[in-house]
Amino acid sequence: MRVLFVCLGNICRSPTAEGVFRRQLAAAGLAERVAVDSCGIGSWHVDKAPDSRAQQAAAQRGIELGELRARQLCDADFQRFDYLLAMDHDNLAALQARRPADCTAHLGLFLAFAGEPDRAVPDPYYGGEQGFEEVLDLIEAASRGLVAELHRRLEAGRH
């Protein structure tokens, strides 16, 4: 199973989701069964580390993001991943516009896994530190829901 988190520049929301989700997968004993990555729609921050504010907020919760590097969405991602999860409606529209006809991956908003199918993870880039805390809270909730879904799917595949 492979999951890709997608935001605009891959320096705030999607790397935070990658880090949080990796930790929750490990806690659930699924780290070896689910591959995780993140990317951005745009190319502005390729090869850059996550925003220092995102790193600091995550570190306060015991999540290390400093080793991650931004990358841009590529066409192969639509075949490589089972889930391409957008942080907001604009990111989702960009994914849908680029989706190849033969793509069978699930494309959707990440917060659907927190029971909020139409809600976006707000971009904290231009705001204060509280925005990064809110993003973490939302991502943690959605990650719990996604871990539960993947656990069900993986267990169903064993029978």
From TrEMBL:
Top-level enzyme category: hydrolase
Tagged with keyword Magnesium: no
EC number(s) per entry: 3.1.3.48
Superkingdom per UniProt: Bacteria
Keywords: Hydrolase, Protein phosphatase
Phosphotyrosine protein phosphatase I domain span: 1-149
A matching Pfam family: LMWPc
Signal peptide segment: none
Protein family membership: Belongs to the low molecular weight phosphotyrosine protein phosphatase family.
Name of the protein described by the UniProt record: protein-tyrosine-phosphatase
Source species: Billgrantia campisalis
Organism taxonomic ancestry: Bacteria, Pseudomonadati, Pseudomonadota, Gammaproteobacteria, Oceanospirillales
